[in-house]
Amino acid sequence: MKALRIVFMLLTMSVLIFPGKAQTCWDDLEFKQFSTPEGLPNSMVHQVYQDRDGYIWIPTFYGLFRYDGYEVRTYKSNLYTPGLLVNNNVLCVEEDYSHRLWIGTHEGLCMLDKRTGKMKKLKLGGVSKQRLNEIHVTKENRVYLGYIRGMAYYDEMQDTLALMTRKNCRGDVPESVNIQTLFEDVNGDLLIGTWKDGLYRYCIKENTFLHYPPLDEENSVLALFQDSRGVMWIGTSGAGLYKAHFSSDRKTVSFEGYRHDARNVSSLPSDYIYSIHEDLQTRSLWLGTREGVSVMELADEGKFINYQESGSKHYLPVREVNTVFRDRSGLMWIGTKGAGVFHVDTRKRSFNVIYPRGNDKSFTDLISTLYVEENGALWIGMGYGLDYQHGGKKVTLFPSKRPYHISYSPLTREVLLAVHDEGMIVCRDGQIIHQYKTSNCGFVPHDLVYLVHEDRKGNRWLCTYKGLGVRYRDGREYCFNRLSGADELLGREMTTMVEDNDGSLWLATNNNGIVHVTGDMERPESLQCKNYCMENGLLPVNTPLCFLLDRSGRIWVGTEGSGLCLYDVQNDCFKSVHKEFNLPGDMVGSMQEDNSGNLWLGTNQGLAKLTISGKEKGRVRIFTVADGLADNFFNQNASFYREGTFYFGCSRGIVTFNSEVVEEKQADISLCITDILVDGRPLEQMPDKNRKEITPFTPDFTDRLVIPASYSHFTICFASLTYNRPQQNKYAYRLQGFDADWHYVDASSRTAYYSKLPAGEYVFQLRATNENGDWGDVREMEISIEPPFWATWWAYFIYVLLAILFMVLIWWEIRRRLLLRNRKFLQEGETDKVHHLKLQFFTNIPSDEEKFLQDAVACVNRHLDDPGFDVPQFVDEMATSRTTLHKKLKSLTGLNTTGFVRSIRLKAACRMMDENPNIRISELAYKIGFNDPKYFSICFKKEFGMQPTEYSMKSGKNA
């Protein structure tokens, strides 16, 4: 109750004491324009529509535009995209539940597949004019189309458009009728507004049309809308606004009308109503008319608040309004004929602003300090002067001096003031009762006092231009800059302080960091100091601005440059947590803690609520001028908190609010990947073949991205689809497998760029906040970086095959040379040449194998003339097994056992013919163990390529 009383008194003072006009929400709406100067390519707007992903689509007289809150993407036929649309005069759009955007133009229908980016043209047969005025997708995902010459639907099975006629529909079918608008009511029926033919109903389940009696002589329906109560509203051409009352069987209807009355400023501004929508936040009906926007509260039917270019106290720089629309976040959009698009946030403001000098928003004197007494008395320090206001009493003190701080003594019930060059001033009931200066006391080091702090024991500490001063409760007075033996840190310029739970003091200096004072506070000569500054690495910056001791005993410091810092007890230093919590700006000038333990921070980019405990620990909620704040920059130490009510000072007044009733918007984040550029080229501009290698889908529907080795870099563009204050959004991204941590960026840097990544598999992760600082879920996209051809798996497979082939060739060459050497060894047949042959050919043959080969040759030579010498005998004499003998002879000579014996015999024959060229062939055959001279000749020719007689003749000639 006490808090409510204080709030009431403050609000009363803001109205009574500070002359000013109380404003309703309708008087204070802030319309934001988006037209050609702001980047909209065309200002002749037919419709504003939000798709299921959150994009805003704007059909205009010269193209279709997609808006993501930052940039516009154009869809129209031109030099770069010839034939994209059947006509650039786009009248209407609507998305179905299959991610297809249906586009109605002046010359027919197009369908954009949002997943693939492919555009398809569909022509309706049976009509001469293809102008499409309206598209409606039912809850059953059926697409109905309103043409200038009748009504049609899309046949999904046949992939064609079907005209609705008496041949395929029952009832009074609107054949060749100019369809203006379609609306699906709560019963699932389609209400159809036409030009000159009034109102129809189409019962989809019965496939039956019903034509209602005329509304008026004009009988032209331009807009249909059913409000949240179920009431159907009809906007007409020249006959104003109608409220329709249908019978229970919906076969009959009666109308209640509202018209323009030139004598009544609260009547409709025009009888031409182009569009109708409801604002759920204010429970009001919004009308787009020929003469601006008209708003009617549902609780006060028939009374209209008109926003017009002229003739109304509610100014809106536009005349004809073609469309009004409410998006998912509650923003109201206004599409105009010639002035582009407007949007406005109609939420009730949770913040009040007190303008101390009574001149409202023109007030520019900064609020430097403030204090609210228990009785509701308000002290306000401004750029120059200090005001005391209580009830009807107002007193201004020191009108030409700058006040720095206001505090309160619970022991003496006195207010303590720190004013430039005025020492310490003690006040009661708005009156000065004593002033302490260097000339009349011993505890003021300098008359420039920044802050007065009364500790738990009633001692008063002063932060001044020349250091610290203290006046103890027992009357002792000290100036530390003049105290013998005092630490020189206590003589530096001090701006603010805080007392921690153990009674020690933390002092903020001007550009010299923080000084921690410990010891017996009652004995000044015993005090010890420690400096926390950039130079010793114990504080990120040397410009502390404010302190806060929270209920857990933690010490928070607001700084200029490093934002919010927290004292780390374990490491005895201050660490910046500003980026960790994703707080706005880089300065915290004032801080307060609410009853729930949340921190409220006045920054240079708005007011931030930081949750530091519980399930939502780390959550940040950001408030700006769009939420009703007077300014986004909050001044140093200009804040106060009492019994649930906050007061924060800025350069345009005092922002007051109750922390329990500040409206909390739930996070509604539509995070989209708006574009992907590969080597600087958008996907949509690539040839289809190249694009499909990367992804077959549009950027926002891409879950896996493949980057071929021929490309060196890629860029991912993204946006959180919010439209009231999109610059407030924050983003974080990282590439798992490459980035060690998240990259945090603001709305001006909505791209992630990667270049020359190693080949491999990665996962791109993306997060975003909405305008209020609430973080949404992580979105992921797989990214595969393909290796160059020489580093692919099949290339490595080929490398392995080549390596194996090379080793086989080496082995084959070694084996070939081995066989050649052994054959030469056998051919020579002389054991005294073994050593010579070994040096020449057998450097790779182990000595044990060479000995085995010599023994084998000698064994055969011993039985050279024995035709009965066979393999078993050979095995026995070699003292080995048949298999072992075969394997060894095969590996050393390439011959099996029989072939080896035959080879030794034939080479012996050559030696004998060398010694005796005239020897008879039959005799020679018997000498080397052959029983058949003819068989001997065959074997010899096979071995040496000539008959024995030929060899004998050559040997004779050589001899």
TrEMBL record:
<keyword id="KW-1133">Transmembrane helix</keyword>
<keyword id="KW-0472">Membrane</keyword>
<dbReference type="InterPro" id="IPR020449">
    <property type="entry name" value="Tscrpt_reg_AraC-type_HTH"/>
</dbReference>
<dbReference type="InterPro" id="IPR018060">
    <property type="entry name" value="HTH_AraC"/>
</dbReference>
<dbReference type="InterPro" id="IPR011123">
    <property type="entry name" value="Y_Y_Y"/>
</dbReference>
<feature type="signal peptide">
    <location>
        <begin position="1"/>
        <end position="24"/>
    </location>
</feature>
<dbReference type="InterPro" id="IPR015943">
    <property type="entry name" value="WD40/YVTN_repeat-like_dom_sf"/>
</dbReference>
<dbReference type="Pfam" id="PF07495">
    <property type="entry name" value="Y_Y_Y"/>
</dbReference>
<feature type="transmembrane region" description="Helical">
    <location>
        <begin position="793"/>
        <end position="814"/>
    </location>
</feature>
<protein>
    <recommendedName>
        <fullName>HTH araC/xylS-type domain-containing protein</fullName>
    </recommendedName>
</protein>
<keyword id="KW-0238">DNA-binding</keyword>
<dbReference type="InterPro" id="IPR011110">
    <property type="entry name" value="Reg_prop"/>
</dbReference>
<keyword id="KW-0597">Phosphoprotein</keyword>
<keyword id="KW-0812">Transmembrane</keyword>
<keyword id="KW-0732">Signal</keyword>
<dbReference type="InterPro" id="IPR009057">
    <property type="entry name" value="Homeodomain-like_sf"/>
</dbReference>
<dbReference type="InterPro" id="IPR013783">
    <property type="entry name" value="Ig-like_fold"/>
</dbReference>
<dbReference type="GO" id="GO:0000155">
    <property type="term" value="F:phosphorelay sensor kinase activity"/>
</dbReference>
<dbReference type="Pfam" id="PF07494">
    <property type="entry name" value="Reg_prop"/>
</dbReference>
<dbReference type="GO" id="GO:0003700">
    <property type="term" value="F:DNA-binding transcription factor activity"/>
</dbReference>
<feature type="domain" description="HTH araC/xylS-type">
    <location>
        <begin position="854"/>
        <end position="954"/>
    </location>
</feature>
<keyword id="KW-0805">Transcription regulation</keyword>
<dbReference type="Pfam" id="PF12833">
    <property type="entry name" value="HTH_18"/>
</dbReference>
<dbReference type="GO" id="GO:0043565">
    <property type="term" value="F:sequence-specific DNA binding"/>
</dbReference>
<keyword id="KW-0804">Transcription</keyword>
